[in-house]
Amino acid sequence: MMKCKRCRAKAEVQVRQHNAAFCRTCFIFFFQRQVQRTVEKYRMFTPADDVLVAVSGGKDSLALWDVLLALGYRATGLHLGLGIGDYSGRSTAKSEAFAQHRGARLITVNLEDDGHAVPTLARFTNRAACAACGTAKRHHFDRIAYEHGFAVLATGHNLDDEAARLLGNLLHWQTHHLAKQHPVLEATHERFARKVKPLFRITEYEAAVYAFVRGIDYVLEECPNSAGASQLTYKDALNRIEAAMPGTKLTFVQEFLRAGRPNFETDDAGAPQSCEGCGMPAFAARCSYCRLVQEVDAKRRPDRAARLAGAQP
Ligand code: SF4
């Protein structure tokens, strides 16, 4: 019988990357301590900070919100209703149910309310849904954090996400992206929040087990647009390597941060200016979200687009 590394009771959860096994209670302790150590080691935030947690309704973001609340951090949820059919409806319902159950504050923004849901953004601009979605998410996360006075924005990216992203960036030698891959991105504009990833050393498997043992009711289905995404191919390749050599993903990401990333720092695009459309950070005269919306409106409502083009910040 496999025994819990901490209390010697019967183990129920094996954590191969740490060559350890735990009973349920000790796994919860282990998981929460891992997150706390990451938050402290990388100076992500302190108990005095108000943290905005981006919550999709999936296991990773709800597990993150749960652990931050359990550790006593001041964590408010932010959920974006992306307007992706029934999937978005169920994601919103799970996020709201979690907030209600935990008595936590949740800010919900529906992209359909101003007519710019993800399917609309993609359809009118001929972009891939995930490209349009990424631009919209980045904009609204920053905007809501700024408007509500949050200096820190936490996302539920886990080790599998970070390792897959790193592999993709390396395979294509995307040096700008390598320069920006870090679990803490400091604010480089007055309307930017510090972006942090407290789960970046936690595997997807560990997050799923944590969500299960904590009784978190999350949306099980994947977004319909995720099928065929290159990220899944990278994750699959990394899972095969991890199965043969446990701990490889963690070493890959940690050693990149220690030894690899410093070589790319000069490729960082630097501090942004202010968008002349919305005032949010931009690396051109207008931010990528304003340009996206302008493109949609130009095709859908030419008169409104002309008015927006002349708008002042
Ligand atoms: Fe957005 Fe693509 Fe993720 Fe769906 S899979 S939530 S469209 S980024």
In short:
The chain has 313 residues and is of the alpha/beta class. Helix content is 49%, strand content 12%.
Describe this protein's structure.
- The chain has 313 residues and is of the alpha/beta class.
- The chain has a single domain (36-271), classed as HUPs (Rossmann fold), CATH 3.40.50.
- The protein has 12 helices and 10 strands.
- The protein has a 6-stranded mixed beta sheet, with helices on both faces. It has a two-stranded antiparallel ribbon with strand order 1-2.
- The longest helix is centred in the middle third of the chain and has 19 residues, at 129-147.
- The relative contact order is 0.13.
- The mean pLDDT is 93.
- The structure holds iron/sulfur cluster.
- Iron/sulfur cluster binds at residues 82, 118, 129-130, 133-134, 223, 225-226.
Helical/strand content category: alpha/beta
Ligand species: iron/sulfur cluster
Main sheet attributes: strand count, strand direction, barrel closure:
6 strands, mixed
The helical percent reads: 40-55%
Number of E-state strands: 10
Mean pLDDT: 93
Strand order, largest beta sheet: 5-4-3-6-8-7
What CATH calls the topology is Rossmann fold
Q: Which key phrases capture this entry?
A:
single chain; 313 residues; alpha/beta; Rossmann fold; 6-stranded mixed β-sheet; 12 helices; globular; binds iron/sulfur cluster
Question: What topology emerges from the helices and strands here?
Answer:
Elements: E1 13-15, E2 20-22, H1 24-41, E3 50-54, H2 59-70, E4 74-81, H3 85-102, E5 106-110, H4 118-125, H5 129-147, E6 152-154, H6 159-171, H7 175-179, E7 184-185, E8 194-196, H8 204-213, H9 230-244, H10 248-260, E9 273-274, E10 281-282, H11 288-300, H12 302-309
Parallel strand pairs: 3-4, 3-6, 4-5, 6-8
Antiparallel strand pairs: 1-2, 7-8, 9-10
Helix pairs in contact: 1-8, 2-8, 4-5, 4-11, 6-9, 6-10, 11-12
Iron/sulfur cluster binds at residues 82, 118, 129-130, 133-134, 223, 225-226.
